[in-house]
Amino acid sequence: MNQRHNLRTRLGVALVVLATLLGIQSGILFLFVFHEYRDYHVAVAGTSWPDLSVGLQTVIYCILKILGGGFMAFGVGMACLVLPIAHGDNWARCCAICLTICVWGPTLHACFVLHAANPAADPPFDGVLVMLLLPIVGVLLSCRPAISDSPSS
């Protein structure tokens, strides 16, 4: 059982690390790469980026940077929790789940709102679901089982 638990813990921590890296990557993209809204935003807005007023472009640009900061904060926050999760600290698991839900829950909601506004829009449902589920599954896998796997005598 101990070896099985160690494998589960390692797999769980690996998933948390993967979510951490993907969160940091998302933050970098929104902070430094994306300077205008995405194609699915164009589908909902019905207006391409160059057709927007400079004022509206500025507002949306700032929102993209705020998103990048949030995604980066998720990644850095998760990075701070990786070792405590690996050591079995339940407080870190709770923090990781709360952080995940607080960042990726509203992001998933925004995808649904965009899609509802225009079904032709293709927001990144898959990526957001992965970011929502990866750390939660990782945290749950890293937990010690409450009941022993070995049969009692």
What's the helix and strand layout?
Elements: H1 2-33, H2 39-45, H3 54-86, H4 90-117, H5 125-142
Helix pairs in contact: 1-3, 1-5, 3-4, 4-5
Description:
It is a single chain. 77% of the residues lie in helices and 0% in strands. With 153 residues, it is mostly helical. The protein has one domain. α3 (54-86) packs antiparallel against α4 (90-117). It is elongated, with a radius of gyration of 19 Å. The two termini are 16 Å apart.
| Residue share in β-strands | under 5%
Q: How are helices and strands ordered from N to C? A: HHHHH
Low-confidence stretches: none
Classification by helices and strands: mainly alpha
Structure annotation, total helices: 5
Shape: elongated
Number of strand segments: 0
Write down the domain tally. Answer: 1
Question: What is the CA–CA distance across the termini?
Answer: 16 Å
Average pLDDT rating: 93
Please state the CA-atom Rg, rounded to the nearest Å: 19 Å
**Helix-residue proportion:** over 70%
Largest sheet: none
Question: Any key phrases for this structure?
Answer:
elongated; single chain
